Amino acid sequence: MRLNLTVNGRAMTADDVWEGESLLYVLRERLGLPGSKNACEQGECGSCTVYLDRVPVCACLVAAGQAQDREVGTVEGLADGEELSTVQRAFIDEGAVQCGFCTPGLLVAADDLIERVPEPSDAEIREALAGNLCRCTGYEKIMAAVRTAAERSGGTSGSGSSAGGDRT
Amino acid sequence: MSDTHAPAHRPQDLDDAIAGGVGESPLRPDGTLKVRGDFAYSSDLWAENMLWGATLRSPHPSARIRSVDIGPALRSPGVHAVLTAEDVPGRNLYGLKDIDQPVLAEDVVRYRGEAVALVAADHPETARRALDLIEVDYEVLEPVVDAELAAHDDSLPKVHPGGNTVRYQPIVKGDPEVTADVVVSGTYTVGMQDQAFLGPESGLAIPAEDGGVDLYLATQDLHTDRKQTAAALDLDPELVRMTMSGVGGAFGGREDLSMQVHVCMLALRTGRPVKIVYDREESFFGHVHRHPAKMYYEHGATRDGDLVFVRAQLYFDGGAYASKTPVVVGNGTTLGVGPYDVANVSIQGWGMYTNNPPCGAMRGLGAVQPAFAYESQMDRLAEALDMDPVELRIRNAISRGDTTPTGQVLDYPAPVAELLRRVRELPLPEAPAAGAEPDIRDLPGGASNTTHGEGVVRGVGYGVCIKNICYAEGADDFSTARVRLQNVAGEPLAMVHTAAAEVGQGLVTVQQQIARSELEVERVNIHPNDTSVGPAGSSSASRQTYVTGGAVQAACRAVRERLLAITAERFGEPAAELSLSGGKIVSRESGVLADIAEVLGSEAIEETREYHHRETFPLDERGRSERAQVQHAFSAHRAVVDVDTELGLIKVVQLDCSQDVGKAVNPESVVGQIQGGSAQGLGLAVMEEIQVGEGKIRNPSFTDYLIPTILDMPPMNVDVIERGDPNAPYGVRGVGEPPTISSTPAIVAAIRAATGRDLTHVPVGPEHIIG
Ligand code: FES
Ligand code: FES
Q1: Tell me: the pLDDT tens digits for A50-84?
Q2: Which of B292, B444, B462, B539 could form a disulfide with B644 if both were Cys (CB 3.0 to 4.6 A apart)?
Q3: List of chain A residues whose C-beta atoms are within 8 Å of the C-beta of residue B677
Q4: B676 pairs with which residues across the strands?
Q5: Boundaries of domain holding A111
Q6: How distant is the Cα of A81 from the closest Cα of chain B, in angstroms?
């Protein structure tokens, strides 16, 4: 089948998509966007988290066909050109990235959290990121990064990213 | 709440010294690529005209292969190759220590999950479906599944022709028959843990015109992979070129080969690039796990609490192939009494072949299992003596100058007692205000709302451990670094080239820091890891900062020497009077002579150096050795847990750690290693176990094999001390493994304190608390 969708604000088309393919496979293998990760492909790890019409989803659980004519935002769309988003910057500054395989999914989940809850409590951060596994960091520096990102965003709406599509 | 104490960075000798050197915490150079989603992990690779590989695995833990019919699979559209054992061009065996594992099974399979055949096809689903069309006729055999039985019952089938023992090692010190006033004994078991790195095993092989192959992959050790792969492919190692791609975690699970030979075979056969990416289920079958263990311990002490003897028998289940089992037995037995000074020791360790999944390296290799047992014993002994468990540990703690059970004198700091005192002093969590309604998210069971505080009991427990650093028992342990200093657009630039795998731990940052400090240049680039430079050994055994750090230091110093010699000649000053500072060459006599870039001009200075650590020696038949291990590291944990004693649910409330790292090259990364390592120890304490029944893994998914989430991992106080090892570069001491080891017994001790239960198995589940 042919799939038309918008990814990070750009209209994209994938041809010869087999109906069993996931949105994650299409992004990674057909659209040249391997930033979203494939740690479990079973909806258990969150490494594939993307925005689908501005709602975070596990791309491995979304059938490719379900993304027809919809807007997808991936980690590759978080930065504004050369300028990293607040959440991206905070993950680097706080040492929240080790191997980094969990990072793309965590960034999307954290970006969404700060958009919804500009000043999240620790309990809210933990709840929002409970679906994102990280095997390297023990999560302490991820907590620090999200706190820092929220602080730097000044509790104003959004964290300076454009991954969610048209919210600016 | 959580608090981190990392050593402050040491002021440099010169004011204008280059920032970001040894002792500071510069940010990692790959961070930006990683947060942008642009860092190319091995599973992200893509090549024009690429095929997908897939692996057929044995459904039986033990069987004879009567026949394999690949015809229907080969004829299916989109399939380009189907390969079996007959197609392995060279030696159909590989292994890290004992070369005992077939690339593809020939006449027998020895574990459920063993690779039997390979497919290359134009779509991953086509490849998977073709696997179903391969017909293998198996004669199913009775599997060997009990390691202890395998050690003593000669009537069991032999998993390998040479018998079922991979390694037997006794350690005897003093009088093994001695008696004591107070004796406690116990039997402890540790479940099979998985490394559960997030980036799946994967690689892209591209056939080359010279008949060789280029493999882009994620691994812990390029050269060891290459050696094994070249032998299986029957190629000159020079024709098997390996380049490191992004590695999504490792923790020991990437030491053994997985897809390396397979993907190269498919690429060479089809003449096209081939990529293999395991899914999570296959990953559980495709790499080794932590050895499950059964351990019998007996501790004797005087009434005052001085240890008199430790006696133990340790059984490690190595599964179907040897992998790192010999090393696990070596580490487990030599470290089997823990970080304590004991005059009389008798330990026997067995590493066995069975038809269970193969076990090999995982963080804390062979030291994790006995630590759970000996620390449980120390708590038991404290109870029998009516002593404070921390005081008992401090009283018996090993220290500099003491002799280990193998007869090795510790000729470097061993601040075990200090770590215990320090971890005890770290702040405890505040008790919830009396009468206040607790936030259920902070209680065992969390948001599932199983309790509002009724039945919840708090406990505190301690654990301390010892881990050997680097390879041991006579291995020539070394790493290689090539450093090139050149003038790029008027600025000096150092390029560091090693094969040392960056698996997430931050070795790239450490290498940059060392080059900055040694060469006083700001810009340091890290060349991609590949096999065009000499071996670095594995990113394991907490060894890379030690050995690759040592090699980078040595190569930088060689470069510096040449640079100073050139300068000395040009300016007519003795080289001994010259030094580097802030990108300049400085003479003690006449001050700044020149910019480094200026002296370099259009010349580059390049030097390659190996670093070998002090020699180690094998154990004799009584487990004696002048120096079995080059260095030991120590950490101590304190855990605070809440247990819902009615439902058996556990919430780790706080987990604190004091660790000696010798010298914190990058203090923030050290803290990150301690936090991450502690989380893996928490996983083993309360949640992580591969369930194996009749040789088969029952839970090969993240749905059924649970690792800690951000809800499970509590805040930590981390206390890092630096008691430098005079034998190691910069005084460093391996960091990565100890926190994985001492966290587990601390958490279990806390659960015991809350429940009064014995708890002799990890992970502890609700059934152990309410059963
Ligand atoms: S890859 Fe989608 S949740 Fe794990
Ligand atoms: S940084 Fe490796 S999984 Fe999170």
Answers
A1: 999 999 999 999 999 999 999 999 999 999 999 99
A2: B444
A3: 138
A4: none
A5: 86-152
A6: 10
